[in-house]
Amino acid sequence: MKKNILLLVLFAMAAAMPVMAEESAFETDFAAEAEAQLSTEMDAEFQNVQIAVEGSQVRVTNAEGLSLEVYNLTGVRISATKIESEDVVVSLNLQHGCYILKVGKVVRKISIR
């Protein structure tokens, strides 16, 4: 008796589940192509970003409109600075140690001595 009730409940649940329609090959190809093109455009935007560190100063080039974010090794954001021109030198007032710099998709690990 319990088996029959359990089977009826499972059957009712299975019958109530929505049926997923398959995407057509055209929709899948179009979506994949659009995603690849967007990814390529975004990568081209960030591929020229350069980060150079000398002492406690950071030089960032080709990153106008982005922001320079500084994280400690535990992932806590220490500071963020908006980059207003193509070539900027930012002075970081940080203690000695290792930090992570992020500008757009470009990430660098640095050591302040």
Q: What do these coordinates show?
A:
This protein is of the alpha+beta class and about 110 residues long. Helices cover about 35% and strands about 35% of the residues. It has 2 helices and 7 strands, in the order H-H-E-E-E-E-E-E-E. It has a 4-stranded antiparallel beta sheet with strand order 4-3-6-7, with no helix packed on it.
Coarse morphology: elongated
The string of secondary-structure elements, in order, is HHEEEEEEE
Number of helices: 2
Judged by helices, strands and strand pairing, the structural class is alpha+beta
Spatial order of the strands forming the largest sheet = 4-3-6-7
Low-confidence stretches: none
Proportion of residues in extended strands: 35-45%
Radius of gyration: 26 Å
Share of helical residues? 25-40%
Terminal Cα span: 75 Å
- CATH fold name of the domain at 49-112: Immunoglobulin-like
The CATH architecture of the domain at 49-112 can be named as Sandwich
Number of strands: 7
Would you state the CATH class of the domain at 49-112? Answer: Mainly Beta
Largest sheet entry: 4 strands, antiparallel
Q: What integer is the average pLDDT?
A: 80
